[in-house]
Amino acid sequence: MSLVQSAKLNGHDPWQYLRDVLARLPTHLNSRIEELLPHSWRAGPPSEPMSP
């Protein structure tokens, strides 16, 4: 199942979910990667909008 559909099934806005996860990935610990999966994700603080 895609991340977008998983985010929807877990009640998240897919765009907000993907923006947050992609912003966190470079500094997120590999041992805590489960926190970024749609079923356990919690939005972080608002970040700068991503450029197109």
Output the keywords.
about 50 residues, mainly alpha
Distance between the termini: 25 Å
Strand content bin: under 5%
N to C succession of SSEs: HH
How much is the average pLDDT?
85
Q: For the report, how would you describe the main beta sheet?
A: none
Discrete helix count: 2
DSSP strand count = 0
Query: Helicity, in percent?
Result: 25-40%
Structural class: mainly alpha
Overall shape: globular
Integer-rounded radius of gyration = 11 Å
Poorly predicted segments: none
What does this structure look like?
This protein has 52 residues and is mainly α. The chain is built from 2 helices and no strands. It has helices spanning 3-9, 14-24. The chain starts with a helix and ends in a 28-residue tail after the last helix.
Task: Reconstruct the topology from this structure.
Elements: H1 3-9, H2 14-24
Helix pairs in contact: 1-2
Summary?
The protein is mainly alpha-helical and 52 residues long. The protein has 2 helices and no strands. Helix 1 packs across helix 2.
